[in-house]
Amino acid sequence: MAVPAEFAAEFRREKDVRTARAIWVVALITVPLWPLSFWIDWIAFPEHFGPLTLARAVVGAALGGFLLVQWSLRRQGRDARHCRTLVWAFVAVVSAYFDVCSLILGGAESDYARAFLLLFFVLFATLPWTPVEMAPLVAFSGVQFLGVNLAFDPEVNWRSYVVVLYLFSAVTFIGLFWAAANHRLLEDEFTGRKDLERERQRSESLLLNILPREIADELKARGRVEARLIPSCSILFTDFVGFTTLAGRVPPADLVRALDATFTRFDEIVSRWGLERMKTIGDAYMAAGGILAAQPDHLIRCVLAGLEMYHALEAEGLTAADGACWRMRVGVHSGPVVAGIVGQKKFAFDLWGDTVNVASRLSDLGEPGTVAVVTGALGDLAGRFEVVDRGTVPVRGKGEIRVTQVLRLKPEHAADPSGRLPGASFLDSMGLGASSVTPTPRGEPAYNS
Q1: Among 107, 138, 307, 415, which is least packed by CB within 10 angstroms?
Q2: 231-283: per-residue pLDDT in tens?
């Protein structure tokens, strides 16, 4: 399985890291093997022990310098960047050692000529390279070994060189097949890992579509979510006037398409104001502020989000399935709620309590184009809005409640003629000036906590 083009650079970086690690391990392995070889030379080639020892000492010093350079690069995190240079340097040093020792012992007839195959074995067994990448390295090693020995061997025994050439060719042929298979396994492993990451991100995205991130993280970490009492938060409900009648006379696909476009825009508005979209129930849209993190101004955020929803409906051409403008009502209420998840399948994070019920009732009681709140809820900011006192109205389960309908922001506090969007002075008064604003994918500001 070939690596997709968008991941090719990342795969190459991973290969470089593997290569740097492989050549580091190989160089470290030579440390205990190097002195051991002195004993082999003493036992097997006593008559050449002096020249062999000198060659081993010189090359050992070179390998020691190589290790120091590589150790320094590893400490700086730069070994992967220079991994191919390190590989070629290691091969050059080791090849020079085998060249000299082979000539000392008689050229291609010596045992060191066959021992040179160890270098081939190490390269093929450790490097995560393709056959195309391996071929120049192995060709250089073999050709220079044969060339040096042919050039300086005083008594060339062609039969020995034919045997050595055959062994080199056979090992190279087998090694290139191994490199191809090994590299394919690396590609498959990398691609499979990326597929798993993509699926995990898709699952994460789906989970975050139904749960706030904090709740999703708790669910993944513990397998459950503890119910919690939230002493103060705000709930926003929207309701479309005449939706039931509309649903009975338009095609279902058109109805769903219109709702999807509208609620998608509402999601963007809610997110910009630092609120959490909770759920939709038919044509009702529910959001909340202050449920997962301290947000002292959660009520005013919900009110401003409701006004901006009206602005989106009016200014962006969001219409009902029959092409007419949506007629919407918004209710906002603050108070304590209980939050949690119930069930094990198709679960959803939900809120319960009188606060939720009152917010829903307010969305039914308000006039289209207004945001209904309990009188007095806006506190000191009430003077910055144009409002209508609805008077006392009966609310099922709560008795009589005095309701105020927010029409718009006053002109001096608005950023648009309709008064649906807050101006800079209003945002500054809420502590939502330039330092608290971050861009969103639509290029609009997001008002952080």
Answers
A1: 415
A2: 999 999 999 998 888 888 888 888 899 899 999 999 999 999 999 898 888 88
Across residues 18-23, what is the average pLDDT?
94
What Rg, from alpha-carbon coordinates, does the chain have? 38
130-140 mean pLDDT = 92
- CA 35, 37, 42: angle at the middle one, nearest 5? 105
Tens of pLDDT, residue by residue over 257-270, are: 989 999 999 999 99
CA-based nearest residue to 97, from 153, 148, 45: 148
Q: How far apart (Å, rounded) are the C-alpha atoms in residues 365 and 398?
A: 14
Query: What predicted TM-score, i.e. pTM, was given to this entire model?
Result: 0.62
Please list the residue range(s) of the chain that carry CATH number 3.30.70.1230: 225-447
pLDDT at 441: 46
- The tens digit of pLDDT for each residue in 137-192 reads 999 988 888 888 888 877 777 787 788 888 888 989 999 999 999 999 999 999 99
Question: What are the residues whose beta carbons fall under 8 Å from the beta carbon of 324, sequence distance 6 or more?
Answer: none
CA angle at 224 for the pair 222 and 230, rounded to the nearest 5°? 110
Identity of residue 185: L
109: exposed, middle or buried (Cβ count in 10 Å: 0-12, 13-18, 19+) = buried
What backbone torsions phi and psi does residue 331 show, to the nearest 5 degrees?
Answer: -125, 140
CA–CA distances in Å: residue 446 to residues 87, 162, 205, 348: 51, 76, 20, 25
What are the backbone angles phi and psi of residue 196, rounded to the nearest 5°?
-65, -40
CATH of 225-447, picked from 3.30.70.1230, 3.30.499.10, 3.40.980.20, 3.90.850.10, is 3.30.70.1230
CA 325 → CA 238, 242, 264, 282, 317, distances in Å? Answer: 15, 12, 17, 18, 8
**Using one digit for the tens of pLDDT, what is the confidence trace for 194-205?**
888 888 888 777
Distances (CA, A) of 437 to 50, 274, 309, 413: 77, 11, 19, 18
Q: What is the DSSP string of 256-308?
A: HHHHHHHHHHHHHHHHHTT-EEEEEETTEEEEEESSSS--TTHHHHHHHHHHH
Q: Find how far residue 49's CA is from the centre of its chain.
A: 59
Q: Are 444 and 427 in contact (CB under 8 A)?
A: no
Residues 409 and 422: their CA atoms lie apart, in Å, by 7
Question: Which is higher by pLDDT, 292 or 288?
Answer: 288
- Tell me, what amino acid is at 284? A
Q: Which residue do the tokens 């190589």 mark?
A: 66
In angstroms, the CA 373 to CA 362 distance is 7
